[in-house]
Amino acid sequence: MNTQLLKARQTKYAAYAAVYILVVIAAVAIANVLANRYNKSYDATANKRYSLSDQTAKVVKGLKQDATITYFDQDRRFPHAKDLLDQYANLSTRIHVKYVDQDKNPQEAREAGIKDYGTAIVRIGTQQEQARSLTEEGLTGAFIRVLKNKTRTVCFVAGSGEHQIDNSDRDGYSNFKELVGKDNYEAKSIDLLQKAEVPSDCTALVVGGPTRDYQQPEVDAIKKYVEDGGRALLMLDPPLKIGRSEIADNDALTNLLQSWGITLDKNLILDLNPIGQLAGLGPQVALVTSYETQPIVSGMKGTATGFPLSRSIEIKNGDKTSLQKLFDSSSTSLATSNLSSPEVDANDPKNKKGPLTIAAAGTYNTGKQDSQGRFVVVGSSSWAANSFIKFNGNSDLALNTIDWLASDEDLISIRPKQEEDRRVTMTNAQLSLVRLTSQFLLPLVVVFAGFSVWWRRR
């Protein structure tokens, strides 16, 4: 009887064990099938460094036809690109990824014009572009070039003390030029003094902080350009009269803007927000963290931008113009009209109290079908200079502005993240403390705990 009972128990336990094993095997199999079919991951980095940007998602998800990314390399190096290319494929079913071994298929590589290992080609329909690098910027840039399939030029006005695109110093716009190039724009300088006419190939015109007065023919050229359907970004600094580098009032140009409904005040904004001071910014830098709903800035919620040496502006719709505010300075800011002395009295009753409008976007009704002039006015120009364009969201604002002016609203978003420098800097004393703790203190604690357990059991 006992033998039969024991055998019954053994059979029951064996059956339980078999069921458990089958359940585990089934769960592992289902998990593998789901993992193979649905490639999901979680990016825990602070700035989502390993996730594709909003701009990339917008471009890829907006595809109207299938696209193929062909990666040319050696077979053993395909895994090097797989992580990034799979992220693109996961965004849309229209994305197809193809891997070609250049050594095994030299003819296909030759037909595609591939010379180097590790090259990616983006093809949509009959159009194709080579990615400039195996990065998100390189691949998304290739998608943009294929989709646009046209040359777009941003013309920077020169000749009256503006920031220059070939200047790599702090005040230059060389980084601005590099940024627009990543969105497939060409950048060039034009001089309206030599020829008072905006070239016909200019997709957008940039007036970047002139320090001297524009002559009337120059102003008339800008007026004709915008009112005929052109696009312009005008950044005008406050007319400071301090030291040698005085900034002209530029009345002819400001009068033109006033006729479009934008009045530029002759003042200097001082931001007394303590958050800006914590970020290392002085009161001469207006810190902006809140934006309106206009397409240029609607996606910048939670992103800070900074505007050194800013002036306030006032806007009013005109007969042919429609204006939208982009953003204001903080409520703790003020504007002083004392532009000839570095001494500023924050308690002066003549000061304007914040928040104060810094930037606005407008459209001009040309009266022609499918032809609309667009312009953006900012009361500061140094925010886009080399010394400040990499501050938080400034580069995104600059590119969003150019994209909106060029009617490329599908490109307006936050760009691929820059790699953060997250190194920890320690003094010699701190380094010695870390070394003492990791090499001696923690091992001793483990040894002592083990000895204590052994002693109690003994």
Which helices and strands appear, and what pairs or packs with what?
Layout: H1 2-37, H2 54-61, E1 67-73, H3 79-91, E2 95-101, H4 106-111, E3 119-124, E4 127-130, H5 136-148, E5 152-158, H6 174-182, E6 185-191, E7 204-208, H7 216-227, E8 231-235, H8 251-259, E9 262-264, E10 268-271, H9 274-278, E11 285-288, E12 305-308, E13 313-315, E14 321-328, E15 333-336, E16 352-353, E17 357-365, E18 372-378, H10 394-405, H11 428-457
Parallel strand pairs: 1-2, 5-6, 5-7, 7-8, 8-18
Antiparallel strand pairs: 1-3, 3-4, 9-13, 10-15, 11-12, 14-17, 15-16, 17-18
Helix pairs in contact: 2-5
Q: What is the end-to-end distance?
A: 43 Å
Do you know the CATH architecture of the largest domain? 3-Layer(aba) Sandwich
The CATH superfamily of the largest domain is identified as: Class I glutamine amidotransferase (GATase) domain
Assess the beta-strand content as a share of residues: 15-25%
Q: Give the helices and strands as they follow along the chain.
A: HHEHEHEEHEHEEHEHEEHEEEEEEEEHH
Question: Radius of gyration, rounded?
Answer: 30 Å
| Fraction in helix | 25-40%
What's the rounded overall pLDDT mean? 86
The fold-level CATH name of the largest domain is: Rossmann fold
Number of strands: 18
Structural class category: alpha/beta
Q: State the CATH class of the largest domain.
A: Alpha Beta
User: Major sheet, described briefly?
Assistant: 7 strands, mixed
Structural domains: how many: 4
Count of alpha and pi helical runs = 11
Morphology: extended
Q: Major sheet: order of its strands?
A: 6-5-7-8-18-17-14
* Low-pLDDT residue intervals, each spanning 5 or more residues: none
